[in-house]
Amino acid sequence: MKPTPLLDQLKKARGLLHADATVADHLAIYRLGESLNKHQELMLTNPALMDEVLVFWREVLVFRGKGCQIMAIQVSRTLSYIASCGSAEITNQLDAAGQTLDQAPAAKDGSVIQTRLDCLARLVKEATAFVQGPRSRSRHLSKLRANFWVLLSAACHLVKDPALLELTLKTVGNAKANDIERMAAIETLEAYFGDGLEISQEAEETLNSICDHPKKAGRSLLISALQAKIDLGIGCELGALDALDQWKDENEPGRW
Fold it and tell me: How is 205-242 classified by DSSP, letter by letter?
């Protein structure tokens, strides 16, 4: 890959991820993670550079020096932001060209859209792999997972990854997962099917597993599932109100 200033900065920062790094080294790494969003155009049009950025992220993730958690959260937040901006840009380009995703020319034909999609797919694959990892009570890991769910929600309508859909359905239906993560997965599920794609029976049944048993769900989780059904055209407002009434009867008796 042709050297670029960003590539040089990444290599230098990776060299600082060691036990003897100084406070100044840690600050330099943090600032690089923070400044990656300034290079989003370059990263989203250069798959090889995106790969280097993801190598940097993985090394930051396993780093155990001072400030390691702050660094990891900053980089994950930046990657999420880049995915959100990239998804919006691709959607705008398709709309301007009057094309659907399937009609976009191939990357070998010089298509910037397909190159962006290639880079976006790399981000989705990385985020999916991380969210699939073992759950933890750690607040730090919870923040990282939340950032990557935001990434997946932003990009899933463009990168139709069966592994991501399977993971999303599993998370939504997992009663042992925390409600925050399940709500993030519901948002991703809604985005996945919200682009004119007919919702699958499995996805509908997964949402129903929450909505049909409102007394067992947290209020915010229940509202998220009910709203998703309405937005996806498989639920109605009257049914949602009835489910909320059932929840109130069970959890807030006498507060009417």
Answer: HHHHHHHT-GGGS-HHHHHHHHHHHHHTTS--HHHHHH
pLDDT at 107 (0 to 100): 47
For residue 120, what pLDDT is reported? 94
The tokens for 99 are 């094309």
pLDDT single digits (tens) 187-203: 999 999 877 778 899 99
> pLDDT band for position 176 (50/70/90)?
confident
pTM given for the model: 0.83
Interhelix angle 219-231/201-211, nearest 10 degrees: 140
Q: What is the pLDDT of residues 47-65, one digit of tens each?
A: 999 999 999 999 988 888 7
